[in-house]
From TrEMBL:
InterPro entries documented for this protein: RNA_pol_sigma-70-like, RNA_pol_sigma-70_dom, RNA_pol_sigma70_r2, RNA_pol_sigma_r2
Domain of life: Bacteria
The keyword Nucleotidyltransferase appears for this protein: no
Domain RNA polymerase sigma-70 region: 30-96
Gene3D superfamilies referenced in this protein's UniProt entry, alphabetically: 1.10.1740.10
Name by which UniProt lists this protein: Probable ECF sigma factor
Protein's GO biological process: DNA-templated transcription initiation
The UniProt record lists the keyword Nucleus: no
Organism this protein belongs to: Lentisphaera araneosa HTCC2155
Pfam family, one: Sigma70_r2
UniProt-recorded Gene Ontology molecular function terms: DNA binding; sigma factor activity
Length: 196
């Protein structure tokens, strides 16, 4: 991927060409793990989640090129709705299959799936996704020890604990925490603007 900050609008325009492999590879990199995380949080096992992600990506490949997109609405919200419908279709198909052939699926598994509120899951997974992506971007400019120290600060570790871990003076940790916190907030905001 040449530029991690390609705008959502630009990316959505580029994928209107179904055969633009670079655009679809970028789209997949940006959204596939997020979709998978939502599905797993909906109590779908890993193998089925992989299949559902592939179905969603194929449906998006077919539909997005002809779709007109309302820029005022969140693309993330659109993806969560698409994901929800695909999971519901999966469950319905599984139940129909069980009726046709009791041995094809484990009915207990299908009945055990409880669909929590999709938007709650989607928001939570999106925050995790943005946080991980921001850390990956920052890791290019900070050494691993500094990034881990900042993670510790975010998780509630004291400056003294972080300084001991980093084998640095506390004032160095205060300074690093301030700089990285500012950069982290900028990265999160940029990602939200570009990807939501």
């Amino acid at each position: 991927m040449s530029d991690i900050y390609k705008t959502r609008k630009t990316l959505l325009l580029r994928i209107k060409d179904q055969y633009n492999d670079d655009a679809w590879a970028e789209f997949s990199e940006v959204y596939k793990r997020y979709i998978y995380a939502i599905i797993r949080r909906m109590n779908i096992n890993a193998a089925d989640a992989d299949d559902i992600v592939q179905r969603i990506m194929m449906n998006l490949w077919k539909k997005l090129p002809t779709m007109t997109y309302d820029e005022q609405k969140s693309f993330r919200a659109f993806l969560s709705v698409v994901t929800k419908h695909e999971v519901l279709d999966f469950i319905d198909q599984g139940k129909r299959q069980v009726k046709r052939d009791q041995k094809a699926f484990d009915e207990d598994y299908l009945n055990s799936i409880r669909l929590p509120e999709i938007e709650t899951i989607a928001k939570s997974e999106w925050q995790i996704y943005l946080t991980n992506r921001a850390f990956a971007i920052m890791a290019k400019d900070y050494d691993e020890l500094a990034v881990e120290g900042f993670r510790m600060c975010l998780k509630g570790a004291s400056v003294a604990e972080v300084a001991k871990y980093m084998e640095a003076e506390e004032k160095v940790v205060y300074n690093l925490r301030f700089r990285m916190k500012e950069r982290f907030a900028k990265e999160i905001n940029k990602l939200r603007q570009d990807l939501e």
